Amino acid sequence: MTRTILNVAYPLAPVGPDAVGGAEQVLTHLDAALVRSGHRSIVVACGGSVVSGTLVATPAPDGVLDEVVKRKAWMRHREAIIEALDRWPVDVVHMHGVDFLHYLPPPGVPVLITLHLPIDWYPEGIVRLDRPDTFFHCVSRSQRETCPDGLHLLPEIENGVDVDGLTVRHAKRGFICSLGRICQEKGFHLALDAARQAGVPMVLAGEVFPYADHRQTFESEIIPRLDKYRVYIGPVGFDKKRRLLTAARCLLVPSLAPETSSLVAMEALACGTPVVAFASGALPEIIEQGRTGFIVNGVEEMVEAIYATATLDPEVCRAVARERFSLDRMTTRYLEVYERIASLQVSRSILAETLEPNSVTRHVV
Asked: Distances in Å between the alpha carbon of 267 and those of 114, 130, 138, 242?
């Protein structure tokens, strides 16, 4: 059966093939998978987004991303969601933003909420949310284990990456790399410290979003650590990221936050590149110690692990990525959940038509 799915992005970050954030990359892949499968895909996202289905664009944010900009973005997202619901017979709304409570649609259509970020980053109100037909899920086992008891969760759906598209061959070179949003919690200043202590070149890639604290981190923590051997190259698209990850000696993921997943770690493994990471959140679930990389504690252990990655087999990394982090595996799970939620809604509608008024039981999930 053909379904109409409305995916709602975080209002301040565009989606598309070159999206930076993990939530935006997952949404991009889901949109493409829906279209390939013959479903109707509607996406509410800010200007500058590129989608396979139909884009309902809200104005792209401009200038420093402060609270005033956020409030305007929430209002425009609310309006765009209502517009989409009025225009199309939406079966499921899928929300991806950490701030989804500010533009959650009114009761009526079922809503799936993916918790892409650490649970402590969401407002406490999500536990008390009593909107009917509202479903939550996590993206990793470790994330689910941190969730409060009052939050009713569907089984987690682990993230996936384009392992086929990432499978290319480039000669390994002597540099190491890190990729991601340039902000304090990603810990890239510690990766630069480890690279300097190890005496190896390093390439740092990623976007500095126009949040005041992100810019401050870049200016005070990153720039002073750069030199002719440790360089920052800015944001990279898919092709350049693939070349960078494939040629690198290893990827460093020095995150200081409890990561719920790590798409870049999965991508590195798909490129045949081992990963050295701190034991933050779900990272130990992704990296197989001594086989596809190393989980370390602190800069000193990271330096030792950089040397040790020379003993790891790139083909083992690729094989593990194909087995565990397939994009098809992720998108198939989501499409199955969409169908289950949409079918549940249809079943309730049929039940309501056969019962007397006010006799239908309301289900709150």
From this structure: 21, 38, 20, 8
- What residues does 35 pair with on adjacent strands? none
The answer, yes or no, to whether residue 355 has pLDDT greater than 50, is: no
Number of neighbours of residue 86 by Cβ within 10 angstroms: 8
Between helices 299-308 and 188-198, what is the axis angle to 10°? 60
CA separation for the pair 179, 173 (Å, rounded): 17
Strand 40-46 versus strand 134-137 pairing type: unpaired
**For the whole model, what pTM was predicted?**
0.91
Query: What is the pLDDT, as a whole number, of residue 167?
Result: 86
The amino acid that residue 360 corresponds to is V
- For 344, the token pair is 């549940």
Contacts of 115 (CB under 8 A, 6+ apart): 122, 136, 137, 138, 139, 143, 147, 260
Q: Both tokens of residue 322?
A: 């194909």
